Task: inverse folding
């Protein structure tokens, strides 16, 4: 398997997620502009959606790629997933009433997750010694972490204005 | 003795400090005896005096909006300001100098659920209009800014009260009359009636003259039974006063370009620095692009009057498109009256010029795609008299019955739109009614909605070049109703 394939796929996934949310946000903003309503609400929603989607996809990808290929490819794939959204994050923040500190902290949290989650996969690979079992377990642990992130989203997602 | 010296010095310093501190006397009184309706604007009459010459700052806080004025106060001189305020149950008035303690007065504004009838009579004759809450007024209770007249729904004024109004109050009253405010003048002097004749909007139906209080009541009752076209709102004008989409389009193009470049980069490069640097640089570049754009304010003016009337009422909206997160300060257009925020929930600060008695600058927070609008309203003199005569064979003869020439416009009659050529005084033109176009763009739809079903109207584009500091993107219209062709 090509070494660059996992992070290329991750980057394409990150790009597709960012594009989908950008399209939704720009469409909502256009409707808000036409109807004279507050476009800031949809910008805050877009920021939350970007955080939530990346926050739930990151554990699955990071732990799995970490178990399959090691820490460095895991970090590269995770960063490939989260980084393409930055221009949309910057614009949505500019259109929202969410504070800069909240948005910066959320991105730092994702960056920290990108570095830490592949370590879990790597640990599984070392402890289980079977690569295939480690990948399956890594995917399961990643999915469990994603589910946990989804269930507890109320406590870490940015509050809506 | 030596031990007491520091204490003595401290006491002397305290006395000197107390002597230097100016004492500001502040009084604040609401217009209309403190009554208004929910969501309506009103006015606060503020008086300041001081014992030592000082520079002071006055803040009037009503809801989320603040009016600030810098004042040079001199001993023995009363500074009086009439500050229009938005809807609020309470208004906080604070005045303070750099050295002294600030003074604060809280003004309560009673919000009536029932319509309000303002009665300015020197006699104590009782009057009651069914369903209305009556507010007894002295001349000084009437506001100086026309926008504050939105607080009341009908007004009765007798000749002595009318005579006691100052120039500013009379000006505001005339604007209110032009804006179709229901006013009954009781036993008004014939000269006053002649002056007011033609200044009332809605064909003069809203400005009435009565000989007795009973007549006044009957006139108001019959006036209330007839529908009068209310002033156009931003929501009503929304269709033809829609904001431009330039900023939105640019953001769309910038994001589309980014996604295209990013997709190519992911396909051809796989190194971590490229994957990280490209989105980071793109974010900075897009933010820089948005910062580099110059927001273009838009001004939309809608005015309307009756054929032959001396004044037309107008509503204007100055829209500021948001680009970036930040704070902005914009000049208030000096030739348009009664500037206020179109959205009372929008935090906004106005700089108030005490000398000219009007807001000069507005400050508010902006962000991308946020549209902040300032609303203006008032009246201006107009001289458009249109005579329409129906002729056989579906023809209409349209004549300029006024003393000034018209520019080219359109005539709305029978649900159709006809081109109206420029006509000099006394000139006429023949219009074939069946050749009209069922042109239904947003502007014409709005104009037709504001024209009586059996009536006609002429619509002209306004020349806004004469308005000082008018934004480049400005448009305005004048709709003149013609009672019945």
Result:
């Amino acid at each position: 398997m090509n070494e660059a394939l996992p992070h290329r796929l991750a980057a394409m996934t990150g790009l597709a997620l960012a594009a989908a949310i950008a399209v939704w946000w720009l469409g909502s903003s256009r409707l808000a502009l036409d109807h004279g309503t507050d476009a800031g609400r949809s910008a805050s929603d877009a920021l939350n959606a970007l955080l939530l989607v990346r926050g739930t996809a990151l554990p699955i990808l990071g732990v799995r790629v970490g178990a399959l290929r090691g820490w460095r490819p895991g970090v590269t794939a995770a960063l490939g997933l989260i980084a393409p959204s930055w221009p949309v994050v910057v614009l949505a923040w500019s259109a929202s009433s969410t504070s800069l500190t909240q948005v910066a902290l959320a991105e730092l949290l994702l960056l920290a997750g990108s570095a830490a989650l592949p370590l879990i996969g790597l640990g599984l690979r070392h402890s289980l010694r079977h690569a295939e079992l480690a990948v399956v377990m890594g995917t399961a642990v990643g999915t469990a972490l994603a589910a946990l992130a989804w269930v507890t989203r109320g406590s870490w997602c940015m509050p809506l204005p | 003795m030596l031990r007491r010296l520091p204490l003595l010095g401290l006491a002397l310093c305290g006395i000197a400090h107390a002597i230097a501190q100016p004492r500001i006397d502040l009084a604040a009184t609401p217009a209309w005896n403190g009554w208004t309706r929910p969501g309506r604007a009103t006015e606060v009459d503020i008086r300041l005096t001081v014992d030592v010459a000082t520079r002071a700052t006055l803040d009037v806080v009503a809801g989320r909006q603040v009016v600030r004025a810098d004042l040079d106060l001199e001993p023995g001189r009363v500074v009086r300001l009439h500050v229009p305020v938005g809807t609020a149950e309470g208004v906080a008035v604070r005045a303070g100098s750099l050295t002294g303690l600030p003074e604060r007065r809280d003004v309560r504004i009673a919000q009536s659920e029932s319509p309000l009838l303002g009665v300015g009579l020197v006699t104590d004759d009782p009057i009651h209009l069914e369903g209305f809450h009556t507010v007894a007024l002295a001349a000084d209770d009437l506001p100086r800014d026309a926008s504050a007249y939105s607080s009341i729904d009908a007004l009765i004024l007798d000749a002595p009260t009318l005579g006691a109004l100052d120039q500013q109050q009379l000006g505001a009253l005339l604007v209110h009359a032009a804006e179709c405010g229901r006013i009954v003048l009781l036993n008004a002097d014939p000269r006053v009636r002649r002056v007011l004749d033609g200044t009332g909007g809605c064909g003069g139906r809203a400005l009435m003259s009565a000989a007795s209080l009973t007549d006044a009541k009957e006139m108001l009752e019959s006036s209330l039974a007839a529908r009068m076209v209310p002033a156009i709102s931003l929501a009503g004008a929304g269709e033809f006063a829609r904001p431009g989409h330039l900023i939105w389009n640019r953001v769309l193009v910038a994001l589309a370009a980014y996604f295209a470049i990013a997709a190519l980069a992911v396909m051809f490069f796989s190194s971590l620095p490229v994957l990280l640097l490209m989105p980071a640089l793109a974010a900075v570049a897009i933010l820089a692009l948005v910062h580099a754009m110059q927001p273009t304010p838009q001004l939309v003016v809608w005015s309307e009057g009756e054929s032959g009337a001396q004044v037309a009422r107008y509503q204007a909206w100055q829209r500021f498109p948001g680009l970036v997160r930040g704070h902005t300060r914009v000049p208030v257009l000096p030739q348009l009256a009664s500037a206020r925020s179109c959205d009372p929930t929008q935090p906004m600060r106005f700089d108030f010029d005490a000398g000219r008695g009007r807001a000069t600058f507005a400050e508010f927070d902006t962000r991308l795609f946020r549209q902040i609008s300032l609303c203006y309203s008032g009246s201006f003199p107009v001289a458009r008299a249109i005579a329409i005569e129906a002729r056989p064979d579906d023809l209409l003869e349209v004549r300029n019955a006024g003393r000034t020439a018209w520019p080219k416009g359109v005539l709305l009659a029978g649900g159709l739109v006809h081109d109206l050529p420029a006509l000099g005084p006394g000139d006429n033109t023949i219009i074939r009614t069946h050749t009209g176009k069922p042109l239904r763009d947003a502007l014409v739809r709005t104009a037709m909605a504001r024209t009586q079903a059996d009536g006609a109207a002429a619509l002209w584009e306004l020349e806004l070049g004469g308005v000082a500091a008018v934004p480049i993107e400005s448009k305005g219209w004048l709709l003149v109703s013609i009672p019945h062709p």
The radius of gyration of chain A is 17 Å. The helical segments of chain A are 5-35, 40-69, 71-82, 86-95, 100-128, 131-151, 153-156. Residues 5-156 of chain A form one domain.
